Amino acid sequence: MALAQPKKIPSLHKPTRLSPGDTVALVAPASPPLTPDLVPLARKLFEKAGFSVITGKHARERNGFLAGSDAARASDLNAAFRSKKVRAVVCLRGGYGVTRILGRLDFAALRKDPKILVGCSDISALLMGALTQAGMPGLHGPMPQSLCAPDAPRYTLTRLLDALRRGPLSTGSILKGYDEPEKALSVLRRGRASGRLIATNLCSLLTLLGTPYFPDLRGSILCFEEIGETPFRLDRALTQLLNVGAFAGVKGFALGQFIHCAYKPQDARGKQTAKDVLHERLGQLGKPIVMGLPFGHGPYNATLPLGARATLDAGRGDLVIESSTIL
After folding, report:
1. Which residues are 200's β-sheet partners?
2. Exposure on the CB side of residue 144, measured as CA atoms within 13 A
3. Percentage of residues of the chain with pLDDT beyond 90
């Protein structure tokens, strides 16, 4: 396959909000559930919220570090995309595997019958594929693997359900209801900017570089987060994206949580922190930057609607969703 230029995002085909009784499909397009009880717990969670639930035929399978074969995982997604009954597709967890199946997915069916698509981490690659190939603005948000954890905060589930139903928290500040902002937020460069919201995982975005699934980021408020990458690895990913000009035209950087992205204490002396790297690599672009916003791999994970108009206020350290991408 020849290298592709960043894909201009087509006109958005917005899905409709969920109503009581609507059908949610649970699928596992990447890694398998960490525990065998995740599927029944996820089913119970969404049924309690008032929805009907179906589970992908292969959602409980395991093929090493993958949730079944590539053909099986793609089959479950395509079945959900083609179903007239399914109104939302929720990925059980991330892990790894989505990029292996992007070429097998029926994005035309998704564009013909828009559905709400939910996930983060490795599922970011699926969100980028749906956005670039179908104009389908998914939700970068929490998945059952974290939602069903005993310590999952109410903030995370409440914001997801509000986004699915287009409730009062589907727009406005993502800090509303977040009770730990003073501990986490850092303004790396002041300023204020508005644009189309694009939310992803840093390394997942990098893996799409040179493919038809890498979006044109010009005019965006770019949100990204990461887990388990030491500062030099973050630097390497950011430098690659900078060297190819991927960030040209980005209007602001809304950075989430960077979990386990520090060196071990015995290895940290004299080395940059994740914050140092993000400040130095992105600061040269002269755009507003806020770090530590509540989204990513931590328990506090705001639901971010791709394609929505958003404002990054790097004076107050806030990200405000101005519009919904759900009708």
Report:
1. 224
2. 27
3. 97
On whether the CB atoms of residues 254 and 312 are closer than 8 A, the answer is yes
DSSP per residue, 134-196: H----EE---HHHHTSTT--HHHHHHHHHHHHT-GGGSEETTTT-S-HHHH-EEEE--EEEEE
Contact 13, 116 (CB under 8 A): no
| Mean pLDDT across 175-189 | 88
| Residue owning tokens 């990461």 | 226
How many CB atoms sit inside 10 A of residue 238's CB? 20
pLDDT digits (tens, 9 = 90+) for 47-91: 999 999 999 999 999 999 999 999 999 999 999 999 999 999 999
- The pLDDT assigned to 1 comes to 55
Closest CA to 23 of 101, 94, 87: 87
Determine the Cα–Cα distance for residues 70 and 79; give it in Å rounded to an integer. 14
Q: Is the pTM of this model over 0.90?
A: yes
Tens digit of pLDDT for each residue in 249-304? 999 999 999 999 999 999 999 999 999 999 999 999 999 999 999 999 999 999 99
Q: Helices in 83-115 by DSSP H: which ranges?
A: 107-112
Residues catalogued as catalytic: 121, 225, 297
Reading the block at residue 100, the tokens are: 């292996």
How many residues in the chain? Answer: 327
How far is residue 56's CA from residue 36's CA, in Å, rounded to a whole number? 15
Q: What strands, in cross-sheet order, belong to the sheet with 318-321?
A: 172-173, 318-321, 309-313, 192-201, 220-227, 252-259, 289-291, 186-189
Q: What is the DSSP string of 203-258?
A: HHHHHTTTSTTPBP-TTEEEEEEEES--HHHHHHHHHHHHHTTTTTT--EEEEEEE
Q: Which two three-digit tokens encode residue 237?
A: 């990913």
CA separation for the pair 215, 131 (Å, rounded): 8
